[in-house]
Amino acid sequence: MDKGYEAEWLESYLRSRRYEPHIQSRKDESEAIKNTDFKAHRRVVERTHSWMNRYRRVLTRWEKKVENYEAMLHFVCGIIVWNKTLLG
């Protein structure tokens, strides 16, 4: 979590749900990056959105009906999984 999540009410809420918040200041974060062999990794969601944006029909929503757009999302996700399974 970053500094934007640092609030008393949020911390108490997270603790009531048995979460341990780890909020690092920007200074500590920059020092940690400088002192280690830190490499930035794209997160799974960002990578998946990048793969989905290759398909124009999903990137720009042309369909008026939600069902049609959702069908295209499922189709594109199926193509992505198919390609990743075959090509590795």
How does this structure look, described?
It is a single chain. The chain folds into two domains: 3-35, no CATH class; 44-87, no CATH class. The longest helix is centred in the last third of the chain and has 22 residues, at 66-87. The chain is 61% helix and 0% strand. The protein has helices spanning 8-16, 26-35, 44-52, 56-59, 66-87. It contains five helices and no strands. It starts with 7 loop residues before the first helix and ends with a helix. With 88 residues, it is mostly helical. The protein is extended.
What features would you highlight for this structure?
88 residues, mainly alpha, 2 domains, 5 helices, 61% helix, extended
End-to-end distance:
32 Å
Helix coverage percent: 55-70%
As a whole number of angstroms, the C-alpha radius of gyration is: 20 Å
Detail the poorly predicted runs.
none
Q: What can be said about the biggest beta sheet? A: none
Oligomer: single chain
Give the overall silhouette: extended
How many structural domains can be distinguished in the coordinates? Answer: 2
- Structure classification: mainly alpha
Taken in chain order, the helices and strands follow as HHHHH
% residues in beta strands:
under 5%
Question: What is the number of strand segments?
Answer: 0
Q: Count of helical segments? A: 5
